[in-house]
Amino acid sequence: MSGIPGSEIFNSRPIDLDVLRASVPANLKLHTVSQDVIDGVDPLTYEVIRHRLWSITDEMGDTLKRMSGSIVVTEANDFDFAICDELGQEVQIGLYNTFLSASLDLAVYWTLQNRAENPGINDGDMFLCNDPWVGGGLHQNDATVFAPYFFDGQLFGWSSAVAHELDVGGVAPGSWTPRAQDIFWESLPTPPIKVVRDGVIQRDVEEVWTRRSRMPQLVALDLRAKVGANMTARSRLRELLETYGADTVKAVMKRIMNDAETRLRSKLRSLPDGTWYATGYQEHSGMGDRGIYKIELALTKTDDHLTFDFRGTSEQTGMINCPYSGVRAGIMSTLLPVLAGDIPWAAGGLMRCFDIIVDEGSMINASFPAAVGKGPVGPAWAVGNLVNECFAKMLDSRPAMRESVQSVCGGTFDMVALAGVNDQQIPFVSLVMDTMAGGYGAGVTRDGQDTGGMFVIPMGRAPDAEMTELTSPVLLLWRREETDSGGPGMQRGGMSGSVCLIPHGTPEPMSAVFSGSGKATAMNTGLAGGYPGNTQLDIVVRGSDVRAAFAAGRIPQEVTDLGGVQDVIGAEVETSIGLDDAVFVHWQSGGGYGDPILRKAKAVADDVTEARVSKQAAHDLYGVVFTNDGEVDDTATHLRRETIRRDRLARAEVAGETRPLDPAALIPGGDGSLDINVTMSGSSVACRHCGETLGAAGADYLARLPRDEAAPAAAGPHIWADSATYIDELVVFRQIFCPGCATALLSQVVPADHPLPHDAPDMEVASA
After folding, report:
1. What is the pLDDT of residues 534-588, one digit of tens each?
2. Alpha carbons 565 and 427: distance in angstroms, whole number
3. Nearest-CA neighbor of 264 among 187, 361, 323, 350?
4. What gap in Å lies between CA 372 and CA 170, rounded to an integer?
5. How many angstroms separate the most distant Cα atoms in the chain?
6. For residues 479 and 510, is the Cβ–Cβ distance under 8 A?
7. Are 749 and 532 in contact (CB under 8 A)?
8. What's the distance, CA 602 to chain centroid?
9. Dist CA 20 CA 23 (whole Å)
10. Chain-centre distance for alpha carbon 318
11. CB–CB of 433/468 below 8 Å?
């Protein structure tokens, strides 16, 4: 289906706030203040009120979390909240799932445009929405309750609370199915509907909402938790306004956004103008598909403004799509920690600093009725990865900004949903939330944090194993960090982990949905020659011997100990889990930074001692050799690394001039001299490791350097060796080297037809 007449009314788009303000009916009086009032707030009052607003949002989060009964909220922190001004601009957002908060304003904009006259927006109202085309969430499982706040008869502002719901209907438990061809296979999207009138939950609306779910009591409890969060905001805002006055508080709210905008623009002006490029992929558009689909980004920075241009992205297809709210969330989830880590997260101000160009009907701006259930953890997440990659290239060109550079974190979310009944015949739906413990990407001077979490959910966490077993009829055999999973590099990417579980306390097989890209191609990209992190791996061991092992007094420690038949699961699969089956889930880590052979041998030795890196990977990828006593053999290590360099140039397809490798020409390491691959010298780019001139600044010189393409296994044991398991397209491990010293400048696991880079691994600028 290409579109349904009349559905365009529900599409969120960039909006002119002056036009929005003028369109509000005269009987809905909006509270605002002049610029003179904003400028007149003294610094002490400003800081006191700013921190009070911050504490109000924190209290909203505490209320939601304490009232919810969902493990997704109480354990994994997959929720967020915001306080907005009278038009919906976000003044303060929570630090939980910033993906969710990045679209809360869109729902308010839409409501002002489409609900102000009928049914009206009144004091004591709250609206419920799970329509990702409207906003407030990124797919139908993201249900938002948002409330207007009136003071002295004027609409002063809005509060919002959003959380992921485990099940809101659809053909599959969890409201997510790889079989989806359009939205009608998934949960019904509900545009803003008045669920609270005059402070009272409307029973008819509540029952329409909960009736669709396989877990209505849990959805009803979450509804009350969100209503409670908004009631908390209402109470605390009234106290604040009665203390300081509406004009003063509003002036602070406006200034918070203005200050965030000013500070971000100042930071952008200190960076070079230019355009940076990145290309990413989504595997499998649905169950049975073996295709791979492209997302393109060209990030242009001009003075104090950013333009994100996604033209060239694949058209919407299958169930791997997101509407406009998703691409916007992908940008914001990366911009906040990378560019605004030292700026208040007033999204209403920060979003003034960029615009988005994206084709209607593409997989990241899908038209109704496209299937969008996978939106946040599929294409929107991939957008964030590409934005991070481009930001890193931009920031790497300025020494003062390089502390913010970070390789891609945790590539994507490995979504595994289980459903069935427990031993009391009570239905359950659960997500394997252990995958929240993704590995963080490496920085210029630091390793990525092992199982540090998710970039898009700053306060996300993996649940306690005991809580998982309490709320779902499963038994965990192990949950652990996985050796060799972190992207190899001069700075190593943070390790990811794995979990293995079996059905326990259920009388019948369970339903399961597996959904996660990055199984054939790496989504957790490395930077500056750093290798990508591990590819994702999900296995169902059919007919395992686990119970026999228990009877014999053994607890299996590896997948190979489980017996049975290994069923390697594709990117989008719906299946069943038998009572004797075991489920193994290995999620993604962080990418590395810099060539692995530049890592200090002592650091590699420590990694081996602490089981972060195997001895084999230390030898093959890092070039570190150990004595029989387990100590680093410095002489053998030096020779091994020199051999790696020579072998690289011997294998490489050479597109330009090279000179014989001269190890004596290498610049000694230490104290940051090997912390970046290229440096600017006039209008040319040179290798910082040997001084070799690589090409003209701003030119696509990487395409003319020595290049090697090998099988994916050459990237290390953490990469799935046979991409044909998943997709038909050929996948390669591509590296580009300095022609003088054979230092890796770029390392990727990508389709063979992946475009050669337009830019250097850390910059493309016209001048220095």
Report:
1. 999 999 999 999 999 999 999 999 999 999 999 999 999 999 999 999 999 999 9
2. 28
3. 350
4. 12
5. 83
6. no
7. yes
8. 32
9. 5
10. 21
11. yes
